Amino acid sequence: MLFSPGWRAHVRQGEVLAVFSLGLLLGGTLSATVLWLLSGFAEPLPRTVRIAAIMAIAVAGVAREAGWIRVPLPQNARQIPREVLQRRIRLGSLQFGFELGTGVRTYVSASAPYVVALGLVLAHQGPLATILTGTGFGMGRAVTATARYASRNDEWDDRRITRMPILTNAIGIVVLAALAVLLLR
Transmembrane residues, as ranges (predicted)? Predict the structure, then answer.
């Protein structure tokens, strides 16, 4: 949690949220840039092989979200040290957001980001589409933090947890459909 219930810092929470969100966007953008660079390795593969691999990965992601198969996702079990946010709140929030925005500093429980990342590498789209996708990942994480902050309601987390399986399954299906449209055009 970025904010504790007894917030007493000299910096306003909204300011910290804005810096944190900027970090999320920058982290997602960097990760997507790396994915775009890596996608050059997939370019020599025949288009049909890349399409088949993307579809197989997407179907596996949807099946994992539905609970039909168990596939462990990569995770970084280390936590960001408490000192990062305590010593220098603005810089620490930017660093925390950046590390979360990259998607490699924390455990991402949903399959969709992994499906999209692998799909971007295999599809070898242009840099703009790939980078905007990564920025969208950071933005999605920022929207969650902003919605939580704006709600000021302790029941928000309970409602989010109840709705999350529905959302992740729906997102998985949308990702699968989007990949199919992108690749079959």
Answer: 16-39, 166-184
